[in-house]
Amino acid sequence: MKELDLKKNSLSLYFVIAYALPIVTTVIVALVAGLPSGIVVKEMSAAALVVVMAMVHAPTIAAIIVVFGSQGFNGIKILLQQLKYWKFALQWYLKAILIFPATILAVLFVLSLFSSNFAPVLSLSVMAFGALFGALWEEIGWTGFATPVMLKRLSPLKVGLLLGFLHAMWHLAASIYGAGAFHGNLFIVNFLVTSVGIIGLRIVMIWIYTRTSSLVLGWLTHASFTGGQLLFVSLDLTAAETIVWNSAFSFSVIGIVVYLVVSNRDLMSRLS
User: What global pTM score does this model have?
Assistant: First the structure.
């Protein structure tokens, strides 16, 4: 698989663009249409759709702009050709698709022992299926561009922590717009515990990438993480219950990360 030949500071420029697009869009939409009173994933308006579309497309748009500036159309071709590599052992597809939905259901089962509000649901919503395509647009940038560049400089674990942190913070503006009013004074707590889970997600994705170099598997892993929550977690949870859910799930994800790091010590060393 061909590698991109990038100019100096391409990675920094990528993050600037990936952050700027959703932040600017969110601010403009909020000024024009105001903030929604509920949760965007439950009450999707035209204004909210603009924010969501700008957000999920930003990582790929940023990657295309940066790659085009370094290698022109040939670079974009190399970036997108990563989607052609999909022939991997079945075990990797099972890990990418099932790790997080299984964790989600297990956590919900335990929490439902204390409150029936946490009982798993099956929500076949447009947003749940939209997670599949949203994850693809994000991961062309995060996995297809940023991950291989960062792995040349840092160990897989450090890449997972740093890229996971940047990925988590990248959600801030859209999260304020989409759920800030709903969570109120609990917003910061909810955002922080959710960010822990996103960092854990990225480390798991980096582990899979170091074994397969696959953008497709990264896409499916991200889709199962987001889509699994939209499919199985009730949208009728209160703000406090949402924090309980996000805390339990995020720290379960960290448990998976600890297991992977202990079992795969090479994650702490730079790839040769």
Answer: 0.94
